[in-house]
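Example for tutorial group B:
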């Protein structure tokens, strides 16, 4: 809960009008511009306390300041004057500096970009200047535009700050927001605010230097970063407001004509209209402000605020309703604080209302709630938020008021509480005497501390001490003095102040008695707590000092403790507390990110050790990093001890939280209480709205409650143990204090969710006439013992402690003297929380509760502990706890039963629909039974229907109310109910009504039965024929049979598919033809019956008998009968259905029959069915029957049948037959299946399918297959396919046929020489050939010498040719001689062609243009190489050049192929491949 303190600025310029004000974005500095006719215009600076900041001296001038703007980061203020002058003031220089201005008219607009990189100024004459700022805030002109149009508004095209609106909680983002002063980020944790670190970091802001400028003529200009200007919109009036919505890249425009337009901003700055709205109200009072992401607030001088949701397209009005506004109030100013998500609205009657949005109701106007209403000295003409402290400055023209938010302070001590209810008022309760009083002070209360009969308050400037009167009706001031203390405490006649970083002890009048200094290392003293005679003082740096107050002067109880040394990521101390004996000090700290640490740290003074309990994980320091034994990720399989199980259960309940406040109990040094809050999760709605909208059960509140009150024991022996936890109710704000047997809780005065005054449309909570703001909640262990004597309370405390640590002997010893049944029942209820069923059995025994003991025994059969404890809770009437436990262990069936037994049928049905669907029908049935028992018969009907028991239960329930039953039967669409009502009407003799409802129920059997009963067979026949209902047809057929109408009976027996009865009538009446048709439609049994009948007729019925035997599946019988009576046509049909399960003799007989009749293919089928595969194959060969893939599969012995040899022989036989019929692919397949890969390859080679041959060779992995494949591939046109050449070399290599590979390389070399004249590739091929030949002839030297010598000779010749050709480029003359000599040396053309030598000579001479000599060389080539073709060796261009030069026609004869190609010697295959 918050109030706002008001501080009027220290106005030293009396009688001046406040024209404008501007906050610095970070620093608590506000600039106020003023003007008067006597003094002229000027600017003054003030801090957050309203004090004047010296250093800004403005010379007297008759002109006034028309624009003021702060640099977004630096403490630099820019002033714009009506003369066009621009000046800057910086905190460093504390002097005004003139800027060389380009303005000649009043400067009306000035704005920095988000990071201060760009400044824009504009004046009334239309001059716009862009300035570039440097790190020292010096500015230089970047661009200037003289638009000749007065400029009224400008806005940057800003970049969205993503960290401000997170779809889910990002702790890193929250930390950044926290250190930048984002109140919302810190509010998600607690009301604590950093003392020293709120501005030590700044979040870097992105900036977009493009901007929009609006003018008085209605033109909007778009200015780019480089200064380019273009007109993007012409509005229908002067531009009054410009706002940019970065979330959707939209521009909001408001004109003087009260038209609001929304425009989409394109990439280049052009605008596209989205919507336009005409506003109502007074134009001169119009104000515009954001009120959240995408939410626009508009005030037009009326008693309401109009809000537009740009994302949803909705608009609504929030009125100034409530007792704190009057009819004359109208909204004059608006200001929104993104850091606090608060909208401030200033009114004409001097009120400032602070609105906050809470999603509670469907109507959006009811979701804006007033948090506080402040009063100022006049109409609030202007409101501005600023600084990281989120201060609000309000301008009333005569005064400027600074409003600072302050969390209402509370304190509880010595059974006295003080609660702040307004900035200057306290509500005080004395619980020992049950007295209440209101204390009104003259100072604004910043903090308070109470004692038995005294209270001290302080404001940051003054301290006042009050003493209560004996009747507690009033208080008198016993001391008052000036002090800037941050914290104060009171004990007997002394005050203890944290003043200026030190601890000061004074009397009530402020006289200093003692002073305790804090060093720089220790930091400033900020926190004081007193419990009994012990006092702890903490500093922001984490230094703790413990003192004894029982003596006249302070005495230290221990050396100072630096808690920061025990906290790895220490940032700042938040709170410290001491127990009543001074043996333990607890504290809460903030991490370096300024987010509260979820641990509560405890300093044991006796051992000087620091331990902690982590509320995030729910474990103390010793167990925080340890995996629990016998868990999914643990290697320790031992069972949990009682203590371990107790701690684990506690962690499950209090984990996932952090501590916002804590207190030590004033009489027991072991017990302390923490207020634990859920870690924030913005993806879920607030719990309060969940409660209101979804009607969350109390068990779910316990599970989901945002705040828990957790009581804990801390001892040196047992560490920190959770004793109990209770959810903080919606009506409570927070814990104020603790004293056995009560928690003292502060009531929510705002009633934002549950106590809102909806008629007044307000949630104002500051009511000073409320009698008490504190309520009490009895501790679990002391329920029923609130008025017990002190020994009983001490015994219960001992019992609670020992029960929490698992020491049952000591626990029972502590309460053995207690005889109260209420106490034992109380302890039994405690066992539900602690899940100690063994203790519960003892408690139930002492209570004499036999039913409970029996239920506890039955519960032992349940496998889950939570389920067993829940059953105990049920017998103790703790239904909410039982429901919570059933939820935790997932026993939805038991939870459903609990809801049913307690009459919460709505919850039971909802649970069954979502979690326990297997019991959904039963739940509906129980709900219907419950409603029936209450007499709510009509309400029970739908639940009987949903349980699908209505066909019996509803008629039973309504049987005594015939009219209601008839109405139900008439209205329902259920055919079962209509059938029941028809049967009831039939039983009463009302046949017409019965027929009507039988027809509605589509019960055709009953209709036919009634018609037959009424002797109306014609209607019955029509019904049976129209509907085809088998039951109706059968009933009608029996009626016709009984009346000897045989034909109709046979007809309806057929329609009813009762073929047996129809055939029986046909046999009895010799309807043979009709019987055959019926038998063909009937089943096997009827067909056999008819077949026997036709067989008995002799020759005339044999054909029909064979057909029916075949149809019925008796193939052997049908075949025998067909052979016997020579029914060969039928035999062919039967053969198609014969299987291997038939008699082999029968199959042989059929095969012989087909052979005699020349149907060899069918004979083959018979042999295949009888598994005589060889005979079938011989028949195929003998009569050339084509063997297809299907036939081959049928003639192949399936795997698993016969021996492997038999199957191989059959496969080979099939392959040979396929080979003989030129079906090489099939032959290959069968040879492969038989394992004969050689013949398979031969078959495949016959097919000529090169791709399959290559694939088969690759998959077979056999040497012979590789060689066969390579030999085959050499017979193809391998020179044109590199892939085939590669396959040949691969296969020869894998087959280790190196001699064949050498021959292939030799052939490749010859091809390169003959076809392409490529001697380089030929040389490579010959080299490979020699290598391969060497591998093949290892050990056979004779053969190696002969063939190897031949290959070496070829290699030498080719190498010599290549060498000579290469030397032609270096020494042509020597090369010419060498070429001629080489040509003369050649004995044959096997290795090197003489024609190629001469061609080389001719081409060289042609290049040298020695055409005559070239021609002579050609002639010599013809003589020496008679078989050579000139055109084959010499290129055509060379021949043409020679021919033209010598003038002689050269006979080319045939021309060789001069295109490149051939063998590539770089392809190598290793032996291992």
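The residue assignment follows.
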């Amino acid at each position: 809960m918050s109030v706002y303190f008001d501080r009027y600025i220290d106005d030293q310029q009396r009688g001046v009008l406040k024209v404008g004000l501007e906050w610095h974005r970070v620093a608590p500095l506000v600039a106020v511009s003023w003007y008067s006719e006597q003094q002229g215009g000027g600017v003054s600076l003030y801090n957050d306390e309203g004090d004047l900041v010296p250093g800004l001296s403005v010379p007297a001038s008759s002109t006034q300041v028309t624009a003021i703007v702060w640099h977004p980061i630096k403490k630099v203020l820019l002033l714009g004057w009506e003369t066009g002058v621009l000046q800057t003031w910086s905190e460093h220089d504390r002097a005004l500096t003139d800027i060389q201005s380009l303005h000649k008219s009043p400067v009306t607009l000035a704005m920095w970009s988000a990071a201060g990189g760009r400044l824009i100024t504009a004046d009334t004459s239309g001059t716009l200047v862009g300035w570039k700022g440097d790190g020292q805030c010096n500015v230089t002109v970047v661009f200037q535009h003289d638009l000749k149009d007065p400029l009224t508004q400008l806005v940057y095209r800003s970049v969205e700050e993503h960290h401000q609106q997170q779809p889910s909680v990002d702790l890193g983002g929250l930390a950044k927001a926290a250190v930048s002063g984002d109140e919302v980020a810190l509010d998600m944790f607690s009301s604590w605010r950093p003392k020293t670190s709120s501005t030590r970091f700044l979040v870097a802001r992105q900036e977009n230097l493009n901007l929009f400028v609006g003018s008085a003529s209605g033109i909007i200009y778009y200015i780019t970063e480089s200064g380019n200007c273009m007109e993007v919109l012409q509005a229908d009036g002067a531009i009054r407001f410009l706002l940019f919505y970065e979330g959707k890249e939209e521009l909001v425009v408001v004109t003087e004509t009260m038209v609001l337009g929304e425009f989409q901003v394109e990439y280049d700055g052009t605008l596209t209209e989205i919507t336009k709205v005409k506003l109502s109200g007074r134009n001169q009072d119009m104000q515009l402000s954001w009120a959240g992401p995408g939410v626009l607030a508009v005030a037009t001088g009326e008693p309401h605020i109009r809000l537009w949701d740009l994302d949803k397209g909705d608009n609504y009005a929030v009125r100034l309703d409530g007792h704190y506004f009057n009819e004359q109030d109208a909204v004059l100013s608006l200001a929104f604080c993104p850091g606090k998500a608060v909208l401030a609205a200033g009114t004409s009657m001097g009120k400032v209302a602070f609105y906050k949005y809470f999603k509670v109701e469907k109507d959006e106007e009811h979701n804006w709630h007033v948090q506080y209403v402040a009063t100022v000295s006049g109409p609030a003409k202007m409101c501005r938020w600023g600084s990281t402290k989120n201060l609000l400055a309000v301008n009333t023209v005569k005064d400027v008021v600074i409003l600072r938010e302050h969390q209402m302070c509370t304190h509880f001590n010595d059974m006295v509480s003080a609660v702040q209810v307004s900035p200057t008022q306290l509500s005080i309760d004395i619980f020992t005497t049950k007295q209440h009083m209101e204390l009104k002070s003259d100072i604004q209360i910043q903090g308070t501390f109470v004692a038995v009969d005294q209270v001290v308050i302080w404001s940051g400037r003054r301290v006042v001490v009050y003493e209560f009167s004996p009747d507690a009706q009033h208080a008198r001031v016993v001391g008052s003095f000036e002090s800037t203390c941050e914290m104060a405490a009171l004990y007997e006649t002394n005050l203890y102040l944290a003043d200026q970083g030190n601890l000061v002890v004074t009397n009530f009048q402020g006289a200093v008695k003692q002073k305790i200094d804090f060093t720089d290392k220790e930091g400033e003293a900020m926190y004081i707590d007193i419990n009994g005679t012990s006092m702890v003082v903490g500093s922001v740096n984490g230094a703790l000092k413990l003192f004894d107050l029982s003596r006249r002067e302070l005495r230290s109880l221990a050396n100072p403790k630096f808690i920061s040394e025990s906290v790895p990521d220490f940032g700042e101390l938040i709170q410290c507390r001491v127990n009543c004996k001074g043996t333990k000090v607890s504290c809460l700290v903030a991490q370096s990110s300024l987010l509260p640490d979820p641990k509560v740290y405890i300093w044991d003074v006796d051992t000087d050790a620091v331990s902690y309990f982590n509320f995030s994980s729910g474990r103390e320091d010793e167990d925080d990093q340890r995996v629990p034994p016998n868990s999914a990720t643990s290697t320790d399989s031992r069972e949990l001890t009682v203590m371990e199980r107790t701690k684990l259960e506690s962690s499950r309940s209090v984990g996932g939280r952090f501590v916002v406040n804590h207190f030590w109990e004033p009489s027991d040094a072991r017990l302390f209480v923490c207020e634990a809050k859920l870690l924030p999760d913005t993806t879920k709605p607030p719990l309060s709205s969940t409660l209101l909208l979804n009607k969350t059960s109390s068990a779910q509140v316990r599970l989901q409650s945002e705040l828990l009150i957790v009581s804990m024991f801390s001892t040196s022996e047992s560490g920190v143990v959770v004793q109990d936890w209770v959810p903080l109710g919606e009506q409570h704000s927070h814990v104020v204090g603790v004293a056995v047997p009560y928690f003292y809780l502060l009531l929510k005065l705002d009633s934002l969710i549950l106590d809102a005054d909806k008629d007044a449309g307000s949630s104002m909570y500051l009511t000073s006439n409320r009698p008490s703001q504190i309520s009490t909640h009895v501790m679990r262990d002391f329920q029923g013992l609130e008025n017990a004597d002190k020994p009983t309370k001490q015994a219960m405390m001992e019992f609670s402690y020992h029960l929490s640590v698992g020491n049952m002997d000591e626990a029972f010893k502590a309460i053995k003297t207690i005889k109260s049944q209420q106490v034992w029942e109380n302890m039994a209820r405690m066992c539900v929380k602690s899940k100690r069923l063994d203790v519960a059995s003892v408690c139930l025994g002492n209570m004499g509760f036999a039913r409970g003991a029996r239920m506890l025994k039955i519960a032992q059969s349940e496998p889950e502990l939570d389920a067993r404890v829940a059953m105990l809770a049920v017998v103790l009437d703790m239904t909410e706890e039982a429901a919570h436990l059933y939820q935790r262990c997932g026993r939805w069936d038991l939870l459903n039963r609990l809801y049913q037994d307690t009459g919460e049928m709505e919850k039971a049905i909802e649970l069954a629909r979502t979690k326990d669907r297997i019991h959904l029908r039963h739940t509906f049935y129980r709900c219907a039974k419950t409603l029936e028992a209450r007499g709510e018969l009509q309400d029970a009907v739908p639940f009987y229907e949903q349980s699908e028991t209505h066909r019996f239960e509803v008629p039973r329930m309504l049987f005594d109310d015939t009219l209601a039953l008839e109405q139900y039967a008439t209205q329902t669409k259920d055919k079962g109910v209509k059938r029941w009502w028809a049967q009831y009407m039939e039983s009463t003799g009302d046949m017409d009504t019965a027929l009507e409802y039988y027809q509605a129920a589509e019960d055709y059997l009953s209709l036919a039965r009634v018609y037959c009963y009424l002797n109306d067979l014609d209607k019955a026949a029509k019904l049976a024929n129209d509907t085809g209902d088998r039951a109706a047809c059968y009933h009608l057929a029996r009626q016709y049979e009984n009346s000897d109408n045989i034909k109709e009976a046979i007809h309806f027996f057929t329609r009813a598919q009762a073929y047996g009865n129809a055939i029986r009538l046909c046999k009895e009446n010799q309807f043979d033809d009709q019987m055959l048709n019926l038998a063909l439609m009937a089943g096997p049994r009827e067909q056999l019956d008819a077949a026997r009948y036709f067989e008995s007729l002799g020759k005339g019925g044999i054909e029909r008998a064979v057909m029916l035997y075949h149809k019925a599946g008796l193939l052997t019988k049908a075949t025998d009968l067909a052979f016997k009576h020579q029914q060969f046509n039928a035999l062919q049909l039967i053969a198609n259905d014969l299987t291997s399960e038939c008699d082999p003799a029968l199959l042989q007989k059929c095969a012989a029959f087909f052979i005699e009749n020349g149907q060899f293919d069918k004979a083959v089928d018979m042999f295949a069915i009888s598994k005589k595969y060889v005979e079938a194959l011989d028949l195929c060969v003998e009569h050339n029957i084509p063997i297809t893939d299907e036939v081959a599969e049928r003639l192949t012995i399936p795997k698993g049948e016969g021996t492997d040899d038999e199957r191989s022989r059959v496969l080979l036989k099939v392959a040979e037959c396929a080979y003989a019929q030129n079906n090489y692919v099939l032959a290959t397949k069968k040879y492969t299946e038989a394992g004969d890969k050689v013949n398979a390859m031969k078959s495949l080679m016959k097919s000529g399918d090169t791709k399959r041959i290559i694939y088969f060779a690759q998959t077979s992995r056999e040497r012979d297959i590789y060689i066969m494949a390579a030999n085959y591939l050499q017979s193809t046109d391998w020179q044109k396919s590199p892939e085939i050449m590669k396959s040949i070399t691969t296969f020869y290599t894998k087959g280790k046929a190196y001699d064949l590979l050498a021959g292939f390389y030799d052939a490749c070399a010859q091809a390169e020489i003959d076809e392409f004249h490529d001697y380089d590739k030929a040389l490579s091929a010959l080299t490979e050939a020699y290598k391969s030949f060497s591998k093949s002839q290892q050990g056979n030297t004779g053969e190696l010498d002969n063939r190897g010598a031949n290959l070496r000779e070829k290699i030498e010749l080719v190498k010599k040719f290549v060498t000579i050709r290469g030397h032609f480029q270096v020494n042509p003359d020597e090369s010419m001689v060498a070429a001629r000599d080489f040509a003369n040396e050649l004995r044959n053309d096997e290795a090197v062609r003489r024609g190629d030598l001469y061609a080389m000579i001719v081409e060289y001479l042609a290049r040298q243009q020695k055409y005559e000599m070239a021609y002579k060389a050609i002639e010599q080539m013809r003589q020496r190489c008679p078989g050579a073709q000139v055109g084959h060796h010499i290129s055509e261009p060379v021949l043409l050049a020679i021919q033209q030069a010598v003038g002689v026609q050269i006979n080319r004869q045939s021309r060789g192929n001069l295109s490149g190609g051939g063998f590539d010697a770089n392809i190598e295959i290793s032996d291992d491949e």
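The radius of gyration is 53 Å. Compare this with the pattern of hydrophobic and polar residues in the output above.
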